[in-house]
Amino acid sequence: MRYFPQHLVAGRLFHAPRALTSAFLLLLWAFAAAAQGQTGTPDADLVNRGAYVFRAGGCYECHTDTKNKGAALAGGRALPTPFGTFYAPNITPDPETGIGRWTEAQFAAAVRQGLAPDGMPYYPAFPYTSFTQIRDGDLHALWVYLRAQPAVRQANKPHDLGFPFNLRMLTWGWRLLYFHPARFTPDASQSAQWNRGAYLANALGHCGECHTPRDPLGGLETDMRYAGSNDGAEGKPVPNITPHQKNGIGTWSAQDIADFLGSGMTPEGDFAGGLMGDVIDDSTKYLTDDDRMAIAVYLKSLPPIDFRPHGKQKQ
Ligand code: HEC
Ligand code: HEC
Fold it and tell me: Where does 179-269 have alpha helices with state H?
């Protein structure tokens, strides 16, 4: 009962039994809290938390067509893949072309289940295979943050996919094979820092979606997690980021990794380009030092895998 001074509850003014009085005050407090929730002005802490989740999740990156100076979150960014080109949709609160008419439950189903409001499945170019792990509180904050963004009217561009990938129905089969809905579960045998890193890398940062090889059907080869990929998004190789000494980043310290995620500079003094440059500019550079270090600690703990995505030379 730390919300109410003891003297009010136990004071001389109140003759009713203490339990009853407390119950009454609690009820009053609940009403006040509920009324506050209905005012429509989202609480600033929640919006800030949502903004952070939004950055950690890299939502901006895919949903903003920065190359063509598109409005934030209005979609239209081309995402080339071996199956064709996807165009990320408008996720601003515009009621006609964005997600302005959606409920929070529909948003949660999209992000964590990969299901559209009409019940159709999304293509995994939208990384809900990772986002399925997002925690309830983070997802709620993300929703509140997105609702507070300016609405932009911009119609979605249809994806440009070859047959048979243009048949959205086929995604049902893909999901049976590769989609495992599950919330993030901390590993009790690991530190809080490691668990935070695992959550940021696997659930929000979806690092494995690019840094893991895919089989011919586009499913992640889970026993090769973080070992890099010969044909990542945009058809270029993606480096191995397991701590393998020769073919991974085993020679990088945790601090090197954390610094890289903040500035884009490798220990050799090179700068990340292409898609990783976008990840750093739109996402990891906004994280706290502690969070970047948590990701680094997690990556250092992965089993080293001896695999060298071709195209990337390492000594
Ligand atoms: C790697 C690129 C990528 C990232 C990162 C990404 N999205 Fe998407 N998103 C997509 C694509 C592509 C689609 C369309 C999928 C389809 O048509 O099947 C999509 C669809 C959506 C939809 C459904 C919109 C509609 O009109 O049906 C929502 C909502 C959404 N994303 C929210 C988010 C949020 C929130 C984040 C960050 C946590 C995020 N996305 C991060 C690529 C991405
Ligand atoms: C959209 C695809 C994509 C995502 C998502 C992604 N990366 Fe990368 N990453 C790349 C590419 C491509 C490179 C190579 C960049 C280059 O050669 O300049 C790279 C490079 C790296 C490197 C440097 C490796 C080296 O040997 O130089 C590290 C470390 C890294 N990424 C960590 C991460 C972490 C941690 C995350 C998640 C927070 C992440 N990446 C998410 C595509 C991605």
Answer: 192-198, 208-211, 254-263
What is the arithmetic mean of pLDDT over 29-33? 50
How does pLDDT run across 184-234, given as a tens digit for each residue? 999 999 999 999 999 999 999 999 999 999 998 889 999 999 999 998 777
34: its two tokens: 């509920």
Choice from 129, 279, 286, 312 to test ligand 2 binding pocket (greatest atom count within 8 A of CB):
279
Looking at ligand 2, which atom is closest to the CA of residue 273? 18
Mean pLDDT of 99-108: 98
Testing ligand 1's pocket by substitution, the residue of 65, 86, 91, 238 carrying the most ligand atoms inside 8 A of its CB is: 91
- pLDDT > 70? residue 20: no
Q: Where in the chain are the domains?
A: 43-123+135-183, 184-315
Give me the amino acid identity at 23. A
- The enclosing H or E element of 173 equals helix 170-178
CA separation for the pair 309, 53 (Å, rounded):
31
Closest ligand 2 atom to Cα of 312 = 17
Q: Which atom of ligand 2 lies at the shortest distance from residue 257's CA?
A: 29
More confident: 47 or 15: 47
